[in-house]
Amino acid sequence: MGADPGEAYFAVGLPAQLGERELLEMTAGAEALAAELGMTICGGDLTASAELFVAVTVVGHAGAEDLLARRDGARAGDSVGVTGALGGSAAGQLLLERKEGGLDPELGEQLLERHLRPRPLVDAGRALARAGVSAMIDVSDGVASDARRLAERSGVMIEIDMPRLPIDEGVERVAAAAGADPVQLAAAGGEDYELLFTVPAAAAQRVAAAAGAAGSAVTWVGQVREGSGVRLLAEGGEARPLHGWDHLAPPGGGQAP
């Protein structure tokens, strides 16, 4: 985490029913985001396929290794922080799948954007890496799973206080309409692409200021402790056995309740 954007390569499989217009729309969207981030789309592969697939490989660059933040640097005593707000993408997915009503159209559109058009936090990632975070990962599979990855690579236990998780505006209303738990959406929903990181206490204020200057607010949500794994604490201190997305789970079992 913390690299400068470099090149992107696309492998696209096109089914017969997908027309030229849809392909050009996808290309235009990719090119617009690449231009915004200062990236170059260098090519890739295009082939016929029974189903649509899009695989993207992205390369980043850094002038020195110490400009990057890895997953294996968290140490007992570090604070755990997260940028932005969580649960918005999961709530947007619920809106798409269940067609829930009762939301302000503008607010609903905002949640749909969170799900359909995620934004990579390149500036915040660079700022956090340079300000002294000890470990960092983007929240693609949910805090519950991504915190576990940091813990495993660093050989520590990460404790998350779930009532402190910053919840995106509108998530609670969507969750209530769908009979879901908004805190669970924030902890395990994933695809928010916010940044989860650990930082020594002495650097916490500097790190928060650097993220703010890059346009991302920081919320402190937990602590790194001796041990292993992740503890997700509900209100009152009770541990909750939540899991985010697991890419290697059997079909239909990627997300645990």
Key features of this structure:
257 residues, 60s Ribosomal Protein L30, Chain: A, Phosphoribosyl-aminoimidazole Synthetase, Chain A, domain 2, 6-stranded mixed β-sheet, 3-stranded mixed β-sheet, 34% helix
Strand percentage lies at 15-25%
**Over all CA atoms, what is the radius of gyration?**
19 Å
CATH topology of the largest domain: Phosphoribosyl-aminoimidazole Synthetase, Chain A, domain 2
Describe the sheet with the most strands. 6 strands, mixed
The top-level CATH class of the largest domain is: Alpha Beta
CATH architecture group name of the largest domain = Alpha-Beta Complex
**Spatial strand sequence of the major β-sheet:** 5-7-4-8-6-9
Outline, from the CA principal axes? globular
Low-confidence stretches are none
Order of helices and strands: EHEEEHHHEHEHHEHEE
- Bin the helical content: 25-40%
The CATH homology group name of the largest domain? PurM-like C-terminal domain
Mean pLDDT: 91
Distance between termini?
29 Å
> How many DSSP-defined strands?
9
